[in-house]
Amino acid sequence: AQTVTQSQPEMSVQEAETVTLSCTYDTSESDYYLFWYKQPPSRQMILVIRQEAYKQQNATENRFSVNFQKAAKSFSLKISDSQLGDAAMYFCAFYSGGGADGLTFGKGTHLIIQP
Amino acid sequence: DVKVTQSSRYLVKRTGEKVFLECVQDMDHENMFWYRQDPGLGLRLIYFSYDVKMKEKGDIPEGYSVSREKKERFSLILESASTNQTSMYLCASSLRSAVSISGNTIYFGEGSWLTVV
C-alpha cells in the first residue's frame, strides 16, 4: 500500500512571497500520478497541479509549480507571489489507478496567507 | 460540465438512525470512492467501488456499508449512526485508468456534513 506524508500541518507566508509545501510518498509502483489539491473553506476539492511519474519535467500551472524527485519520492509544491485567495488546506495525493489503495492522500497542510 | 453530486450537504441525525448518503456522477466513471474527512486526519477511505455491485473496503469500513446498483450512483449507508460518525463525507469518482484527456483525473463532490446527536 502507498503512503503519503505531509510533514507540515500548517504553514504561514506573507502575501506576495513564495512558499513551498512538502510531500513525500512511498510506493513500489513505477507508473503513477501525483496531485496537489486545494480545499478552501467551502470544502470543494480543487485540482491545483498534476504530475505524471514518467515525465521528468516538473509540472507548472501559472504561479504553481512542483519539484518532483522520483528517486527521492518527493513532490513539493511551490506557490509564487502568494495571494490571499491561496489560503486553504492543501492535500498531496498519489494515484496508481488500481483498487482501493490506488488513491492515497496526505493529511494536509493548512496554508495561511498574511496580508 | 462534469459533475459529482452529493444529494445532502448538511444532515443532522439521531444516534441509532439509519443514514443514507447519496453520490451521483455523470461522467460514466468506473471508480467511485467514499471518504471521511476529520481535522488532522486528512481523507480516509471508507469504501471503494470499481464497477456495478463491486466494492472494496478502505481503511475505515467499520460501521458503514455501500451500495452500487447503477454505475452512476454510489451510496454510503450508516446502519446505526453513532456520535463518532459525525464528520464530513466526500464522494469522488474517476476512470478506471488514471489517464484523462482533460488533465483532471479524480472528481469530487462538495461534501456532506453529518452530525449525529
Whole-number radius of gyration of chain A? 14 Å
Helix-strand sequence of chain B: EEEEEEEEEEE
Return the string of H and E elements of chain A: EEEEEEEEEEEE
Largest sheet features of chain B: 7 strands, mixed
The coarse silhouette of chain A is globular
Radius of gyration of chain B: 14 Å
* Total count of strands of chain A: 12
- Which percent band covers the strand fraction of chain A? over 45%
What ranges of chain B have pLDDT less than 50 throughout 5 or more consecutive residues?
A: none
Distance between the termini of chain B: 37 Å
Helix content of chain B: under 10%
The averaged pLDDT of chain A comes out at 92
User: Biggest sheet of chain A, in brief?
Assistant: 6 strands, mixed
What percent of residues of chain A adopt helix (DSSP H or I)?
under 10%
Q: Please identify the structural class of chain B as seen in this structure.
A: mainly beta
Task: Return the average pLDDT of chain B rounded to an integer.
Answer: 90
The global form of chain B is globular
What's the number of extended β-strand segments of chain B? 11
* Low-pLDDT residue intervals, each spanning 5 or more residues of chain A: none
Rounded to the nearest angstrom, the distance between the terminal CA atoms of chain A is 41 Å
